[in-house]
């Protein structure tokens, strides 16, 4: 789509206030390397089981602790005694090419094993729950915005805490189509002009919507984007089998990844994106190579695959971070699942990653090494990982990282040498 | 008097689900009395009198699972080219795929649409909102396959009858309901030192049959999910002063609480039962209180104590104030509710009365941003209509992030403005309002609809914009998307 058509669309969407993404083409092009860099943060909610994401097949205690849900023979091998879950095929291919690494024993500072508290800490970047009501990614974007214009977007119908805060960010989810002919958007902007919440949010929503129409036309032969949710209950044609249902979900996930990639490749498009996935709370019947968790991991893998494919030449300038609020108990529980634990696996992906083995140390699963005799012990503070990526990849300054982005975190050193 | 006009508008919009035409006018005589009259000892209204019970739905789901297994075995045998040997066929009416579709569309869909229709049409919308608060407090979500069809029955059986009774009774009904036991994995939790666990670990001892509900060879053990969420989300709250050890002790005490299954007699299939053989023997200590060994009396005593704790009163009264009044409510309001709760022993009728009587709850500035469900229901109320079926609800609620009966976690739907007022969400609300208004306005005067829907809360600037609208549909859409309609 040519720029004239794009601006026509933007105008048709009826926003006179902010042409934020589309008008900044020249600006973005004039910036150097840092302005091309892209960061995607994927939150896996529910406590994703790191011991299944990257099974430590070389650890002699693993199979015994996990019994029927241990993933051994079918695991996709990595170097150094680790592997990836068989549902993470695309991620594994990237790892083989040196473009994906695992962080197998990472945790936030929170130890309460509550989903909601841990997610708050993961996303706010604080050390205690309710420490702050804005997210670290929002504050990182705010810090960068002092040097250059950085756009950010959250994907999904509700805004995740990590992206909320004083710096305005966009949000988008599939499905909305603005009628370009109607006067309503203009009239509403008028009605919202003194409204501190609706005014800015609406202007941004319209700008993003018009950008989405541009990004979507770049997706070949995809008439209607599927919803981010793989199971649109009670709407749409129902697939005949569970497998078809899963395939449909994965197709939707791949499209979602590709659409986000399309946004980020737009001239002046967002450099930073946050995607939130849920369904990782596997207390019962977790499954092993197949099953409940495998289905969710296949969905995650498809999102990552879509991002990789959609970013094309920009993949070399991209880092994707996948993290969860906590890991799960080292031992299988009484219901073929696992309960809330402590350390888990984070994933790093991107064309610009430096090669290397696992990030952080492996504490082992020996009973003496377990945290409180039940969980994988953390060897790395999640904030150190995030700080390393923000510093080396996006150029966020250390002073900002230590004080505003992650308050009072001077003692937590950034993990260096990742990119 | 002017204040009473404003109070009437607040009564219908903040405490109710939005005004239907004529509602605010009728409320003006006594706005607080209008709300108090809706507090009924018998509880909230039932969206579907005579609807299917959770027990019927659970049994139906188990039949479906059995039929799926048979189907898979037949397919596997066919694939091998072998003769499965006259496989048992599922009855025609129970074709698994058709059945799954029917369960989701006809059953869950009808349950949800019935609730939405009740919300859109009831003259007693405060009573309905009060019930919705408790359904969300004790969230059971359809995000799990096993619970996909029992959320509606759970609300009808465990929540609605008890919302104006004692909190302890509501707590007991919610936590021991089969839907909750399934949703938070309690049904399978087995005491590691229980008879059942010993049996499963050893295999059958000579001359001893399996205790009911126990499959030999399956690994047995504790699942602490429900115990943790009761403490964290349903009673004392995350800062209520409990530890990991309390969670585990409580989980041990809860073992035995389960659902009648295939091994039990038909009369208890799909209902809550207590399996003595799966209960962890011994006394338990939870939050510093010792509970002597026993069966279900032990868990009953713990729940009773949790219901009575002041942390529980404080946690839930804070939630009530946040839900009805403001994300950051006046502390005096919460204190007032806590005092009433403690003085009345958790009598929810008195707490509801205290809420609508508190001056802090009637601040003229609307501070709450409507959730997608509240926005949709209040739109139908403003137009004097009701949603026809699930087909007009589900796609929009999915797109706005509030998929029917599918709260993302046991914490329920988020409460705060930031969660719902994302840029994309506002645009999607507008797109929906445009389509809805074009169809719903049906030759009526949007100025009159606006006056009816918002009363004294309608701002002159919005009234002017509506008066200048080019079409009736545009006028109604402006009303629905106005800042004062989006808030309550």
Protein model, in words:
The complex is a heterodimer of chains A (419) and B (488). Chain A is an alpha/beta fold. Helices cover 36% and strands 11% of the residues of chain A. Chain A has 14 helices and 10 strands. Chain A has helices spanning 3-12, 25-30, 33-36, 50-53, 62-66, 89-96, 115-124, 136-144, 184-191, 198-217, 242-265, 292-311, 382-394, 398-405; strands at 38-44, 76-77, 83-84, 100-107, 152-155, 170-172, 272-277, 318-324, 344-349, 380-381. In chain A, the strands form 2 sheets. An 8-stranded mixed sheet of chain A has the order 6-5-7-1-8-9-4-10, sandwiched between helices. In chain A, strands 2-3 form a two-stranded antiparallel ribbon. In chain A, helix 8 (136-144) crosses helix 14 (398-405) and helix 10 (198-217) packs across helix 11. The longest helix of chain A is centred in the middle third of the chain and has 24 residues, at 242-265. Chain A starts with a helix and ends in a 14-residue tail after the last helix. Chain B is an all-alpha fold and 488 residues long. Chain B has 3 domains: 54-182, no CATH class; 184-308, no CATH class; 372-486, no CATH class. Helices cover 55% and strands 2% of the residues of chain B. Chain B has 24 helices and 4 strands. Chain B has helices at residues 2-15, 23-27, 31-36, 54-80, 96-121, 125-137, 151-159, 167-175, 178-183, 195-202, 225-234, 244-254, 296-308, 310-324, 331-344, 348-357, 372-383, 394-399, 417-420, 423-440, 446-454, 460-467, 472-481, 483-486, and strands spanning 257-259, 272-274, 284-286, 289-291. Chain B starts with a helix and ends with a helix. Residues 204-208 of chain B have low confidence and may be disordered. Chains A and B meet through helix 7, strand 6, helix 9 and helix 10 of A and helix 5, helix 11, helix 18, helix 19 and helix 20 of B.
How are the SSEs ordered, and which strands pair?
The complex is a heterodimer of chains A (419) and B (488).
Chain A: H1 3-12, H2 25-30, H3 33-36, E1 38-44, H4 50-53, H5 62-66, E2 76-77, E3 83-84, H6 89-96, E4 100-107, H7 115-124, H8 136-144, E5 152-155, E6 170-172, H9 184-191, H10 198-217, H11 242-265, E7 272-277, H12 292-311, E8 318-324, E9 344-349, E10 380-381, H13 382-394, H14 398-405
Parallel strand pairs in A: 1-7, 1-8, 4-10, 5-6, 5-7
Antiparallel strand pairs in A: 2-3, 4-9, 8-9
Chain B: H1 2-15, H2 23-27, H3 31-36, H4 54-80, H5 96-121, H6 125-137, H7 151-159, H8 167-175, H9 178-183, H10 195-202, H11 225-234, H12 244-254, E1 257-259, E2 272-274, E3 284-286, E4 289-291, H13 296-308, H14 310-324, H15 331-344, H16 348-357, H17 372-383, H18 394-399, H19 417-420, H20 423-440, H21 446-454, H22 460-467, H23 472-481, H24 483-486
């Amino acid at each position: 789509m040519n720029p004239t058509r794009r601006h026509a669309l933007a105008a048709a969407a009826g926003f006179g206030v902010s042409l934020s993404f589309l008008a900044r083409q020249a600006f973005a092009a004039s910036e150097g390397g840092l302005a091309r860099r892209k960061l995607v943060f994927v939150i896996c909610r529910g406590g994703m089981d790191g011991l299944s994401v990257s099974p430590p097949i070389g650890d002699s205690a693993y199979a015994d602790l996990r019994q029927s849900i241990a993933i051994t023979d079918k695991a996709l091998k990595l170097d150094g005694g680790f592997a990836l879950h068989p549902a993470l095929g695309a991620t594994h291919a990237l790892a083989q090419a040196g473009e994906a690494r695992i962080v197998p024993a990472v945790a936030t500072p929170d130890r309460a094993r509550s989903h909601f508290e841990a997610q708050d800490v993961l996303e706010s970047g604080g050390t205690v729950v309710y420490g702050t009501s804005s997210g670290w990614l929002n504050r990182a974007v705010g810090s960068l915005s002092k040097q250059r214009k950085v756009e950010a977007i959250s994907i999904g119908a509700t805004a995740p805490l990590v992206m909320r805060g004083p710096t305005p960010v966009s949000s988008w989810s599939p499905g909305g189509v603005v009628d370009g002919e109607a006067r309503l958007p203009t009239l509403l902007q008028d009605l919202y002009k003194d409204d501190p919440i609706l005014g800015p949010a609406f202007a941004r929503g319209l700008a993003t919507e018009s950008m989405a129409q541009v990004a979507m036309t770049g997706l070949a032969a995809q008439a209607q984007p599927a919803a981010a949710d793989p199971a649109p209950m009670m709407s749409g044609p129902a697939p005949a089998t569970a497998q078809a249902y899963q395939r449909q979900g994965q197709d939707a996930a791949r499209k979602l990844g590709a659409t986000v990639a399309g946004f980020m490749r737009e001239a002046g498009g967002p450099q930073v994106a946050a995607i939130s996935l849920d369904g990782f709370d596997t207390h019962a019947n977790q499954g092993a190579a197949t099953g409940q968790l495998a289905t969710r991991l296949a969905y995650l893998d498809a999102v990552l695959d879509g991002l990789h494919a959609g970013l094309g030449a920009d993949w070399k300038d991209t880092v994707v971070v996948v993290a969860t609020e906590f890991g799960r108990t080292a031992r299988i529980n009484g219901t073929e699942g696992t309960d809330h634990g402590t350390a888990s696996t984070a994933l790093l992906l991107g064309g610009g990653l430096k090669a290397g083995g696992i990030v952080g140390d492996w504490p082992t699963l020996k009973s003496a090494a377990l945290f409180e005799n039940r969980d994988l012990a953390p060897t790395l503070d999640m904030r150190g990982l995030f700080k390393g990526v923000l510093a080396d990849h996006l150029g966020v300054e250390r002073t900002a990282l230590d004080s505003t982005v992650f308050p009072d975190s001077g003692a937590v050193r950034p993990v260096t040498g990742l990119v | 008097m002017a204040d009473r006009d404003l109070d009437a508008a607040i009564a219908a919009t903040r405490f109710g689900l939005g005004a239907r035409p004529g509602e605010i006018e009728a409320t003006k005589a006594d706005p607080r009395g209008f709300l108090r009259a809706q507090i009924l000892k018998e509880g909230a209204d039932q969206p579907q009198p005579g609807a299917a019970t959770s027990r019927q739905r659970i049994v139906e789901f188990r039949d479906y699972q059995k039929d799926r297994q048979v189907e898979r075995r037949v397919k596997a045998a066919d694939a091998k080219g072998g003769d499965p040997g006259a496989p048992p066929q599922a009855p025609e009416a129970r074709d698994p795929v058709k059945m799954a579709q029917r369960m989701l569309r006809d059953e869950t869909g009808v349950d949800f649409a019935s609730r939405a229709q009740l919300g859109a049409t009831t003259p007693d919308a405060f009573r309905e909102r009060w019930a919705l608060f408790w359904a969300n407090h004790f969230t059971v979500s359809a995000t799990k396959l096993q619970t996909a069809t029992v959320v509606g029955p759970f609300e009808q059986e465990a929540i609605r009858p008890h919302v104006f009774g004692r909190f302890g009774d509501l707590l007991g009904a919610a936590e021991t309901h089969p839907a909750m036991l399934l949703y938070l994995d309690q049904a399978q939790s087995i005491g590691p030192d229980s008879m059942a666990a010993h049996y499963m670990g050893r295999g059958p001892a000579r001359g001893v049959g399996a205790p009911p509900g126990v499959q030999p060879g399956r690994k047995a053990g504790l699942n602490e999910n429900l115990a943790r969420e009761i403490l964290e989300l349903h009673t004392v709250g995350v800062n209520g002063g409990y530890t990991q050890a309390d969670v585990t002790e409580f989980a041990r005490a809860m073992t035995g609480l389960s659902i009648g299954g295939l091994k039990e007699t038909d009369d208890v299939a799909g209902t809550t039962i207590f399996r003595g053989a799966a209960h962890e023997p011994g006394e338990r200590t939870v939050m510093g209180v010792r509970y002597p060994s026993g069966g279900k009396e032990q868990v009953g005593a713990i729940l009773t104590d949790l219901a009575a704790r002041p942390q529980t009163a404080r946690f839930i009264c804070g939630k009530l104030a946040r839900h009805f009044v403001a994300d950051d409510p006046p502390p005096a309001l919460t204190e007032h509710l806590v005092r009433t709760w403690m003085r009345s022993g958790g009598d929810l009728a008195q707490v509801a009365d205290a809420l609508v009587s508190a001056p802090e709850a009637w601040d003229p500035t609307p501070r709450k941003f409507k959730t997608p469900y509240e926005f949709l229901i209040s739109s139908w109320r403003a137009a004097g209509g009701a949603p026809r079926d699930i087909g007009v609800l589900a796609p929009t609620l999915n797109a706005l992030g509030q998929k029917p009966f599918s709260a993302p976690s046991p914490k329920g739907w988020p409460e705060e403005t930031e969660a719902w007022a994302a840029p994309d969400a506002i645009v999607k609300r507008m797109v929906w309002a445009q389509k809805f208004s074009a169809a719903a306005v049906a030759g009526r005067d949007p100025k009159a609809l606006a006056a009816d829907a918002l009363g004294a809360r309608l701002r002159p600037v919005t009234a002017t914009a509506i008066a200048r609208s080019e079409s009736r549909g545009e006028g109604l859409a402006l009303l629905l998307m106005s800042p004062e309609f989006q808030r309550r």
